[in-house]
Specification:
With 139 residues, the chain is of the alpha+beta class. The protein has a domain of 66 residues. A five-stranded antiparallel beta sheet has the order 1-2-3-4-5, with no helix packed on it.
Length: 139
């Protein structure tokens, strides 16, 4: 897999932007879920013979608009080069070259003030270790 590789400084510089993008992703996801639920309820009402076709059309247009914004935010986040692991937690990994060229992930999630952990490619969040334990050639 071709990853964008970050050093700690580069990844840290992205955190303010990532906070914005993750907040937007979560907000648009929640709005889309709400609109989808409303649409389902309107379809049920239509099935019972109620005259709600115009409202269905309006809600569908709104859902499409919110979905487009959600997709744009996801593309913006993807364009940063980091790897989104979990939208709810705001979990993001940054590919990084450790000493000797080994690939590892710098690991951060919303609520953490800074990037303080890393894990191996096959370890995941449960394998996080303090950044101080990672031998880096380029910090």
């Amino acid at each position: 897999m071709a990853w964008h590789y970050f050093n700690v400084s580069e990844a840290t510089a992205l955190l303010p932007r990532l906070r914005e993008l993750l907040d937007a992703l979560r907000r648009f996801r929640d709005q889309a879920a709400l609109k989808k639920t409303r649409l389902e309820m309107l379809w049920q009402r239509l099935g019972r013979g109620e005259s709600v076709l115009a409202r269905i059309s309006d809600e569908q247009r709104e859902l499409d608009r919110v979905t487009a914004r959600l997709i744009a935010a996801a593309r913006d986040l993807e364009g940063t080069g980091c790897i989104l692991r979990d939208v709810d937690r705001g979990l993001v990994d940054f590919a990084c070259r450790a000493h000797g060229g080994r690939t590892v992930f710098l690991c951060w999630h919303l609520g953490e003030a800074a990037i303080e952990f890393w894990h191996g490619v096959d370890e995941g969040y449960a394998g996080r270790k303090p950044l101080a334990e990672l031998p880096l050639d380029d910090v």
